[in-house]
């Protein structure tokens, strides 16, 4: 047995057989307790007149940094419903079809038929005690896929948020400057519909805390994809420019080599 092999073998033997100890997790938010945001939730879950209905893409549930749990825990019981899937409604989605067909249900989605949420009649003026506000939770391509594969969504009254603000979710890249996380969208929509400025402030506290925790532990602030493309710093653009540069270097090298051969 060679000396190098013996050394490698001893290193392998020294690796502990037991898995490393896992960090203790919070039972409520399932985050590590050192970076738990539960203390930033309202002491008493927020009671609103409107209900939020989340149609969540299955892939979104697997993300470690999500905002829907903050919304579910921040609102009183029964005011935030989450249905998972790629197409809605499904047989397993008990009661969802009735909610989608209710006259006071609206879908927050920027289709050509959407109207500004601010133009939606306020509760008393609209003749409703509450609205069921539907949101699609996932990346923009996933949200579009859900919309196009769910014909019943197309029959719903559709609204959109017109905002010039930027997202507080600075540790995740947004598609455009005006895009908001699911939590931010719901909080802003509830603030507008119920004319209560405190709703947005209360519901966003855990998100701000999460971002601060991540930034303190090495995360960096993310600009939107739109901003990165405009400033030509989007990774895919950098890749294309690098590819063109390398091709140029390769071509120059080939030409240089040819000249050298001729000289020899």
TrEMBL record:
InterPro entries: DTW, DTWD2/TAPT. Its EC number is 2.5.1.25. It is an enzyme of class 2 (transferase). It comes from the Eukaryota. Residues 22-219 form the DTW domain. It catalyses: a uridine in tRNA + S-adenosyl-L-methionine = a 3-[(3S)-3-amino-3-carboxypropyl]uridine in tRNA + S-methyl-5'-thioadenosine + H(+). Keywords: S-adenosyl-L-methionine, Transferase, tRNA processing. The keyword S-adenosyl-L-methionine applies. GO terms for biological process: tRNA processing. GO terms for molecular function: tRNA-uridine aminocarboxypropyltransferase activity. Belongs to the TDD superfamily. DTWD2 family. This is tRNA-uridine aminocarboxypropyltransferase. It comes from Frankliniella fusca.
């Amino acid at each position: 047995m060679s000396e190098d092999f013996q050394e490698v073998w001893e290193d392998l033997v020294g690796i502990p057989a037991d898995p490393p100890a896992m960090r203790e997790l919070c039972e409520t938010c399932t985050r590590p307790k050192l970076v738990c945001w539960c203390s930033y939730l309202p002491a008493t879950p927020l009671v609103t007149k409107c209900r939020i209905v989340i149609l969540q893409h299955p892939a979104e549930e697997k993300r470690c940094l999500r905002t829907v749990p903050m919304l579910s825990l921040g609102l009183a019981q029964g005011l935030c419903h989450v249905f998972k899937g790629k197409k809605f409604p499904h047989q397993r989605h008990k009661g969802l079809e009735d909610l989608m067909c209710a006259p006071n249900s609206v879908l927050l989605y920027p289709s050509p038929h959407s109207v500004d949420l601010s133009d939606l009649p306020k509760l008393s003026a609209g003749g409703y005690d509450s609205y069921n506000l539907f949101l699609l939770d996932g990346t923009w391509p996933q949200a579009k896929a859900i919309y196009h594969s769910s014909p019943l969504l197309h029959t719903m009254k559709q609204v959109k948020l017109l905002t010039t603000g930027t997202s507080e979710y600075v540790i995740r890249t947004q598609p455009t400057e005006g895009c908001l996380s699911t939590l931010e969208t719901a909080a802003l929509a509830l603030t507008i519909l119920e004319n209560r400025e405190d709703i947005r402030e209360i519901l966003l506290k855990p998100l701000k805390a999460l971002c601060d925790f991540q930034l303190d532990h090495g995360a960096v602030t993310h600009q939107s994809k739109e901003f990165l493309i405009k400033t030509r710093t989007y990774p895919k653009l950098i890749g294309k420019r690098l590819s063109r540069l390398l091709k140029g270097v390769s071509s120059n090298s080939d030409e240089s080599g040819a000249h050298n051969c001729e000289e020899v």
